[in-house]
UniProtKB/TrEMBL annotation, chains A, B:
An annotated Gene Ontology molecular function: transcription cis-regulatory region binding
PANTHER family, alphabetized: LACI-RELATED TRANSCRIPTIONAL REPRESSOR, LACTOSE OPERON REPRESSOR
Protein name listed in UniProt: LacI family DNA-binding transcriptional regulator
Domain HTH lacI-type: 2-57
DNA sequence: CAAGACTGGGCAACCGCTTTCCGGGGAGGT
DNA sequence: ACCTCCCCGGAAAGCGGTTGCCCAGTCTTG
């Protein structure tokens, strides 16, 4: 393993000079020495040891991103946005996948803290359990106490910079659009009761429906993924319009109806949430609420890096996109 | 920032003892001191500084994964498999996204080397340019010279442990299946000419078609993504069966045909490659060649960590999955 | 009961790099 | 010709841990 000392010796200069040449410094180094050092480094195949550099500088150039599930396009898009922004700042990215286990999320914050990453991004829904949230907050505080920066994409529950998708408002806007098409009997594939994102989207939808004087939607809980949507879709009763709280569940629901010979949108209309890019070619095209996921990811990184005294909360509005999976029944 | 020294002082023990208690060691520490140290660490909110630990131990617990594009479900699945395996080994993951730029890939290897990661996984197709491959190899050699381990998912071109999907054979098997259904005039949406994965799949398909004595398929080049498939599908002429070299392109092709009123599979049959999970509910269901992506990712990590003197090459066979996007024309 | 084998605690060297501080030499000013 | 200032090179003190080694005390064991 080639060290800076090897390079310095080979070039016949001091450690200090070699360091200044190779790893940047405010100080100048004479042209001849500089060339000698560079040549030596090249010949020896020197690569700076970042661990040593981080230790000496007291600051790393790594950020951490903690996501629930990278194979879920929602998180992939979010992470991609954040990673692009990070690359733009010359930062490396360490990714932790919790597979939806809140304990894992806490553990990852501790780990990222140990890594002394410059910032941590928490992507993904909070859960409603205040005990878990409390422990997460404590771990975050511990991290921030030693100079770490944190941002979160999701609910503003952690007292940190947050990019908060307007889940409630998005659900409500969608409900109003669907009611505007003449739908009256709704059902919601509501996901898990403890997941805030699912809850907020569902609540916005239900409240809006009720404000319009329509009968309250039938709520069907279940997992937050494709299979959850598939299963839950079997219990939507006589609803003419079904809202799945995310696109992946909506696609599951569509598959379920298809398998059971229920036509969409003729027999039942289906809408989702997120507007996942990979799903845009689905047939029938999915009505949904579009969220600018990549922007949200990069925005979260910006917030984290810039974070000042009082946390900033950015509310991101979704945009209802009507497509052929819902029918106009007026 | 709380250091081990702070903990040791607060607990009234030496640095060595505190280290042995908190960060593991073969040496025993008496129960009372151990308790004192643990309490002090907890009170102070101590987190070991991994940079220091890495430096002192001379080995980090981080691995690097370099992918082309995380929002492409192919890479997401691969990365997820590798990350699960890494988590099982107690390793952290640093992810680099090249956005399909080979120079970026080389740069990331250098960076991962600087980070002294335990292993680097290179996921994704090689390109046919030998100059670029040569530079990548040199960078990898430099990394391995200092004890780094490397594995690759893709073509066995780097002289490292490799998980090699049988792209050529998969393309050929698919061709034989499709010909078996009575198809005669084929077209291939072949992706970019320089991308080995695209090339191999295409070559396998073409060779198999010709071996069967059928007319050579029409080859349409274009980008490796959804839009590439969409555009290329406009030029498939009178082919009755179209092979897109990956699922994402195939979905683009399906969209193109739909937009132009060409019915699939009635007017034209379409097949892809990879069997992307997110796309399994597509309508019509896509005929494809299934690759066990998550397993390939975790396998690559295993290979890298275990890597011995001579590189191992694992060939992974794909499995043809016939679904409704192709028609039996016999 | 003495001697050797363990146990467990602490000192200090070291991991590889950054950066402060010091000093020598050349340029510019008077 | 002398002084000052600036420029640039090097010595050395950290950064926060790990670990080899020494040593005192306790446990066997003949």
């Amino acid at each position: 393993m080639v060290t800076l000392e090897d390079v310095a010796r080979q070039a016949g200069v001091s450690l200090a000079t070699a360091s200044r040449v190779l790893n940047g410094s405010t100080r100048q180094v004479g042209a001849d020495l500089r060339a000698r050092v560079e040549r030596a480094a090249d010949e020896l195949g020197y690569r700076a040891n970042m661990a040593a550099q981080t230790l000496a500088r007291g600051a790393s150039n790594v950020i951490g991103i903690v996501v629930h599930d990278l194979t879920d396009p929602y998180f992939a898009a979010l992470a991609d946005g954040a990673m692009r922004a990070a690359a733009g700042e010359g930062l490396l990215v360490m990714v932790g996948t919790t597979h939806r286990d809140p304990e894992q999320e806490i553990a990852y914050v501790a780990t990222m803290n140990a890594q002394r990453v410059r910032a941590v991004l928490l992507a993904g829904s909070r859960v409603s359990d205040p005990e878990v949230t409390g422990r997460l907050r404590r771990e975050l505080d511990r991290y921030r106490a030693s100079g770490g920066r944190v941002a979160c994409v999701g609910q503003d529950l952690l007292g940190v910079d947050t990019v908060a998708p307007a889940n409630y408002e998005g659900g409500a806007a969608l409900a109003r659009s669907l009611a505007g098409l003449g739908h009256i009997r709704f059902a919601v594939l509501a996901g898990p009761p403890h997941l805030m994102t699912a809850r907020d989207r569902c609540a916005g939808f239900v409240d809006a429906v009720e404000e319009l004087g329509l009968p309250g939607p039938r709520i069907v809980h279940g997992p937050f993924d494709r299979d959850g949507g598939y299963t839950a879709a079997a219990e939507t009763g006589d609803a003419t319009c079904v809202f799945a709280v995310n696109d992946v569940m909506a696609v599951g629901a569509l598959a379920s109806y298809r398998d059971r010979g229920v036509r969409v949108p003729d027999d039942v209309s289906v809408a989702g949430f997120d507007d996942i890019a990979t799903l845009r070619d689905h047939v029938p095209a999915l009505t949904t609420v579009r969220l600018p996921l990549a922007d949200m990811g990069s925005r979260a990184l910006e917030l984290a890096l810039a974070s000042g005294e009082t946390p900033t909360v950015d509310h991101v509005q979704g945009e209802v996109v009507l497509r052929e999976s819902v029918r106009d029944v007026r």
